[in-house]
């Protein structure tokens, strides 16, 4: 056929496509289908039997052509609809209805019944007398021991060093094959309040165990997206010895509260605002993002921030009551993927 | 009103903060009861059992070594009894014709007179069971027979009316395939009805059946489940299987005739602290460290029925044995009110219209109050404490 010959020679250019379509339209008109003449663009139903979809065309080039044409048409219609809506809004001015809020997974989140109500007395009592009570009553100040799994590689060692600059009053020790259950009583006698163990796999850190010491809970996290200081672009100079401020974002449920308090108890109670350093633990969709910044207020409303220290993402795997004992300890919360991850809109922290 | 409704609660749960919670599953309400008005962590509930006289009284064993009497009819704590001696919390609490049997962690089992007058009297009987007790359980068929077991403390069955020596002392299993001694850690014990057998679940994820009637002191049946310590166990209504829970929140039904796993129940996220099955209905109540009380249906079909968030870590629970769960107290109250007002309106029909209208408006007000109460109950999602 001459038509197909033209198309194949030109390689399917737009103008030829339009010409072919116009020819098809004329054919349809001659066929006597009156309803299709009113359409500007030739719809497929005109030339083909009704209920026909583009995907039924066997020829790949032709199918691709019809699809791209349909897509362009859709885009045009969408743009036209947007412009029309915008014009209507401008025309109405103040009386225009409010813009509809787009649905996101965060604002479609299933309401969690364990969300803490700030006025709840029972939860307030529970928190006031839990294992972190001595920290929040300012009776103890934190002293952290940071260590790794056995035989760490360079990245993990550097992460530990950088973490110890970020967390005040922290000490890094090499693991040297010691068992955690033997380290913990020694830490308790030396007045350590927290133990951080960074687990490493194939030369990258991938897990974090945070154990509050006298008899406190142990949280086990998956760690990902670890960026050391030299990998962070446009960063500021190294952090100073000032005690940073803490920001804990979006820890709403009861479990989130426990984890948030655990993070808060890592840092001393008296932030030095002179240092203008802030550590942020931001929880979004059960992932906790850790960032360390230095801020400066240029005016009342404008702030400039420089990212300093290491950055990583944590996801809670389990919260165990008592110090580290993964085999015989009692778990307060265990992440079970097949039971808990069934809904994309349900989060636990 | 909470006090009047207390008798209709289906499940009673004891928490780590010392609050006793009564949960009504029909109305989806949970009520808090404390002895002193404020929760106190020193009074954390470690053992619960029904008191004398059916289900009208609950004995609450607290961490400060006191046993409190709680009346379900009135919804208040009635008496307090100090039970000193030994160290640690209560691991078992039972009552037998006017006496309270307590057992603490360090192995002192004492029988006390359940009398409010002599608050600080000496125990009637004291037995040393051995240190490291994890559970003491009373035989429901023979109230004077108890069994104890714990960490490195083998299962022993005691007859409190008999001698000082245990009636049955279990023997440890043979050395394992490496010729090492198998450690003992009995976490929960149950008496099987209809025979003398006992079932235990251990911290080394084993479930064992012992038969004191047979000549062998070693377990008659042994099965394992999972990789984590089993913390709680309960018998199913059929009597042929048990349901066990472990520290990871996994619940499993194990058949005792063959030692086979029948099925698992999903839902718990934390360590299981308390489990109890209803004696006739296929319902299982479970509570744990994840602060939620769950009621599962065990058969046809197996699944979750109710889930109640209770804000504090739950330590132990008591499920009421009664058959009619749909019994609403409102019917008897309304039955009382309606005939009274009917007679009053009948008498006052002949009198002035104003008086009749006042009577009608009173009726409407009370009905309105009832409706608002009902509306309040049906608020979606939350159970009010």
UniProtKB/TrEMBL annotation, chain A:
Gene Ontology biological process: maturation of 5.8S rRNA; maturation of LSU-rRNA
Annotated spans, Disordered: 1-105
Transmembrane segments: none
Annotated Basic and acidic residues bias: 87-97
Classification via SUPFAM superfamilies: Class II aaRS ABD-related
Secretion signal, residue range per the UniProt entry: none
Subcellular location: Nucleus, Nucleolus
Record's keyword terms, sorted: Ribosome biogenesis, RNA-binding, rRNA processing, rRNA-binding
Segments forming domain Brix: 142-325
GO cellular component terms, semicolon-separated: nucleolus; preribosome, large subunit precursor
Record-linked InterPro entries: Brix, IMP4/RPF1
Positions in coiled-coil regions: none
Highest rank taxon of the organism: Eukaryota
Molecular-function GO terms, alphabetical: rRNA primary transcript binding
Record's function text: May be required for ribosome biogenesis.
Designated name of the protein: Ribosome production factor 1
The species this protein was found in: Sapajus apella
Automatic annotation (TrEMBL), chain B:
Quaternary data: Isoform 1 interacts (through WDR repeats) with NVL; the interaction is independent of RNA or pre-60S ribosome particles. Isoform 2 does not interact with NVL. Interacts with MTREX; the interaction dissociation in a late stage of rRNA synthesis is required for appropriate maturation of pre-60S particles and depends on the ATPase activity of NVL.
Protein name: WD repeat-containing protein 74
Gene name linked to the record: WDR74
The organism of origin for this protein: Sapajus apella (Brown-capped capuchin)
Keywords: Methylation, Nucleus, Phosphoprotein, Repeat, WD repeat
Spans annotated as Disordered: 325-344, 360-385
SUPFAM superfamilies membership: WD40 repeat-like (SSF50978)
Record SMART domains: WD40
One GO BP: RNA metabolic process
InterPro entries listed in its UniProt record: WD40/YVTN_repeat-like_dom_sf, WD40_repeat_dom_sf, WD40_rpt, WDR74/Nsa1
UniProt xrefs under PANTHER family: NOP SEVEN ASSOCIATED PROTEIN 1 (PTHR16038), WD REPEAT-CONTAINING PROTEIN 74 (PTHR16038:SF4)
